[in-house]
Amino acid sequence: MRYFLQRGGWFALTLWAAITLNFLLPRMMPGSPADAAIAKLSQNGPVTEETRRAVEAQLGVPDGSLIQQYVDYLRQILSLDFGVSYAFYPEPVSGLVAQALPYTLVLVGLVTIASFVIGTLLGVLAAWRRGTWMDALPTVGGSFLTTFPYFWTSLLLLFFLGYVAHLFPTFGAFSATTQPGLDWGTVVDAVYHAALPATTMLITSLGGWVLGMRNAMITTLGEDHVTFAEANGIPGRTVALKYAARNAILPNLTGFGMALGGVVGGSILVEQVFGYPGIGFLLFNAVTGQDYPLMQAIFLMITVSVLVANLLVDILYGILDPRTRR
Question: Which residues contact 246 (CB under 8 A, 6 or more apart)?
């Protein structure tokens, strides 16, 4: 219990530090968030100080002392009120994030989980059957696939399967004539549009899980407790999964926690290539539009999700390997 309380304490401290940095960094940047809007107005003539103050008030630029701004910022986080988007004015930031988040969670989340499960099982199989074609095929294939960056693979699939073969749509999450809902036709259309982005992320991430699990598994297979289990006549499948894989999966589990925490951030390049309306696509538009409130909200969500994922991994470590509690 002491181990879990310590993990929870460190999580709370790190979360507070992340929230504070997310508050300070935009305010340490030169200029004001209203400068982009004022720059557009200045093209029609000089901007007076009254006009500048009116623009800042309209955009919700914070004023007052830094401590008062920090208190207001914490209050806004608790109420999930992140202000108004500059790039999509007058849309509230929370509404934009709420619209984009489900797309990323479904697409990136399911692909990350599927890639981890498939890659881990293939790594266990490759290590247990090392020296055979069952080892060579996933190992060589995984090494080959990990050399391809996300954006290059997505462009290849988009060109050949989208523009040349016309097998899959090339943009968006739904057809232009589809109204988003929970009916069967909408679900099929959404899966059809998500096929290429999901395939891209699955191809480029699968090899890392295979190679990581295989290497850790081979090291674990040489330990005494595995040899002792084999000498006692325990079936090979039980030895591979219960004795070897349970310990070998710990490094992969750490990587999975980091990947799962990054789900909220989405895959910016993949979503941008396919025009998929997830968090990554929204973040790209926020950066190009100098939308500070939207960027701040998305960065905070990404940071919190990574911290929560790391906390869950720490808890799983304590359950799977009691030695870590000491």
Answer: 320
Is residue 233 situated within a structural domain? yes
* Interacting residues of 307 by C-beta distance below 8 A, sequence separation 6+: 11, 14, 15, 18, 261
CATH number for position 223: 1.10.3720.10
Q: Which of 55, 16, 15 is nearest to 35 (CA)?
A: 55
pLDDT at 161 over 80: yes
Print the domain residue range for 43. Answer: 33-79
What is residue 242's DSSP assignment? I
pLDDT, tens only, 211-257:
888 888 888 877 777 777 777 778 777 777 777 777 788 777 778 87
DSSP 92: B
Residue type at 258 in one-letter notation: M
How many domains are there within the chain? 2
CB distance 154 to 273 below 8 Å: yes
Q: What is the CA radius of gyration of the chain?
A: 24
Q: Which amino acid is at 141?
A: G
